[in-house]
Specification:
Helices cover about 65% and strands about 0% of the residues. By secondary structure, the chain is mostly helical. It has one domain. The N and C termini lie far apart (about 45 Å). It comes from Latilactobacillus curvatus. InterPro entries: DUF805.
C-alpha cells in the first residue's frame, strides 16, 4: 500500500487529485479528505455535462 502524504494546511488541487488516484488504483480505498472531495467535484461536473448539453 502506498503512503499518502497528507500535510497540514492548504491542499492544492494537483496534490489532492494525485492522492485520490494513488488510493484508487491501489484498491485499498485510502485517500485524503481533500483528495476525495476534489475528485468528486470534478467527476460530478463531468457526469452532468452531457445532461446540461442536452437540455440547452
Amino acid at each position: 500500500m502506498r503512503e499518502i502524504q497528507e500535510t497540514p494546511g492548504q491542499v492544492t488541487f494537483k496534490s489532492a487529485w494525485r492522492d485520490y488516484f494513488k488510493g484508487y488504483f491501489d484498491f485499498t480505498g485510502r485517500t485524503t479528505r481533500a483528495g476525495y472531495w476534489w475528485a468528486m467535484l470534478i467527476l460530478m461536473i463531468v457526469w452532468f455535462m452531457p445532461f446540461f448539453a442536452i437540455q440547452g
